[in-house]
# Entry
Amino acid sequence: MLPAHVSEPLLEARGVSRSFTIRDGLFHRRDLRAVDRVNLEIIQGETLGLVGESGCGKSTLARLLLGLLQPSAGEVRYMGGALSRQGMALRRDLQVIFQDPYSSLNPSMTAGEIVERPLIVHGLGTRAERQRRVSELFNWVGLPAESASRYAHEFSGGQRQRIAVARAIASGPRVVIADEPTSALDVSVQAKVLNLLKDLQSALGLTYVFISHDMRVVRHMCDRLAVMYLGRVVEYGPTEDVFTTPRHPYTRALLGAVPRMEPRRGRERKRVGLEGEPPSPLSPPPGCHFHPRCPWAVDHCREASPELRSLAPSHEAACHLALPLPLGEGRGEGPLLR
# Structure
């Protein structure tokens, strides 16, 4: 659900699913549904966060939003039109920053050649104009222009990711999908890269889809948040609302796992344990996929699959049970039936 003041999303997923056929033994094949009926609306200039455990479908969904994969069902739309029909014309508008700066940069190219490559692909500028653009981009991301002649292995991890950021914004995109862009970096470097991304967003009017498993990072970076579990979005809303009033037991468990340097004095905030591992996407449980790990599951959770429904303005959750109280309130031990 879009905020009331927004009339049209910039990028949108409508009932998007993606399945892969997996070989199971010598003669059998099975379908793995990596993304399952996802609806998302991404607003111009915002940062939408995607969070969840490893293997929940975040990166697959990112590739669907970029057009690198085609949906098995549903549709991705950009500026009101079907993404699948716009083809290469969109490559300038939709760019990506990959997770690992050590493997995402071509070791046989100089840093300047890496950043210049999108300009060449899209036929932007003369050689002299491209060189000036590369120097400008290096300055924007906090690297000296003269370092453009060096190779990727001559840079630190944080510097490599700055090169990746420069490459992503070189063609003047409107949407940048950042797939865990700081998870491979030292903690001391992460904040600098995150602040760089925020500064570039402000200066260039960028729209981000920010993928992470770190709840503290997404709270710092994101305007709205989509929580994924086993291919499905189970909660979706403004970031502060999701953090202060989580409506899904899985979201509450994720927040409960965030380390706290200074626990609350007196009564401790009640934490929700997250037991066991996620079920295999090859054989997801019936009903709510989260029910085998949910401490409040009832028979209805095991039988019927919940759909996203509005529980507050612009805040949705896919749960038969609601969590009407803010995380940490003393009243109530768990969700209440709506």
